[in-house]
Amino acid sequence: MAGSEVKADLWITEYITPWDVYLHGATRLLAFQQTEFQEMYIVETGAYGKALVLDGKWQSCTGDEFLYHEPLVHPSCIGHGAPRNVLILGGGEGATLREVLRWNTVERAVMVDIDNAVVEACRQHLPEMHQNAFDDPRSELVIGDALKYLDDTTIAWDVVISDLSDPIEEGPSFQLFTKEYFEQIRGVLSPRGHFVVQAGPVAPAELQLHARIVNTLKAVFPHVQSYSSYVPTYAAPWGFALASMQELSTRPDPESIDRILAENTTGGLRMFDGTTLLGMTNLPRHLRDAIARETEVYTKAHPPKFFGKGVVKQ
After folding, report:
1. Of 163, 166, 253, 289, which is the active-site residue?
2. Which CATH architecture has domain 66-293?
3. How many Å apart are CA 139 and CA 142, to the nearest integer?
4. CATH architecture of 10-63+309-313
5. What ranges in the chain are assigned the alpha helix state H?
6. Domain boundaries, the chain
7. 163 annotated active-site
8. Average pLDDT, the chain
9. Is pLDDT of 128 > 70?
């Protein structure tokens, strides 16, 4: 294209659909390892700062991660009102833990991640994301399997956050988007507990995964709310699903939400406030219709399969 200048020699080719790719231009490779569970890259990009890539799938980057991590964490904490015990499943970068620790009501925040190599690489190379959250006296890091932790825990959790990598078949988390898994979550929640899961893209060509995750949650929880946030480096608006045994508000009052945040959290939020929450919880018609039509429930016998691994090449 006339006037264009390509400045990267290393390219991460992420397959979005069988017909669409996103090329992320990287200027420097900071870390690479074939871990026990997945292929990990941490790279410096030209446009969006440093990024974590697992099995060729973009996880997050310093340039726009706040558009993912803030909406992942805060609606569930607001829904509970005063979370004291928060469990994070996944979340290797530490940014989800960072957002949880903004809540001054939180007394204990446990992060369970299966891949110690990823966590340690993120601690070393992505301090902008975790911002020393691992060193907060309220935080506890557990390297282990999320399912086993759920089996063993005796704590009634106020908020559980499922911040897992996409459910590609070769990865470590594809069975953690199923009815059986969600039933385990329900069993460890406090009576007012809230559960949130990153629930895949909500672009028109990719709606099925999200709609089925929401439908699977509805088979376990009486109250489920879909919402989304646009994350540029994901090449699509990204979906989340909030679930609880308690009723969820779909018409939150922005001024009330802003007051809750001011009274209960440490500052620094960049995109999330009461107006943002009101917008996110009121879905466009095509997304509401897709969720309403969906009938399939994911199970361990028939788990979701996310499309494709990406490749890194010069």
Report:
1. 163
2. 3-Layer(aba) Sandwich (3.40)
3. 10
4. Roll (2.30)
5. 66-80, 95-100, 116-125, 127-130, 146-152, 179-188, 207-218, 254-264, 274-280, 285-293
6. 10-63+309-313, 66-293
7. yes
8. 92
9. yes
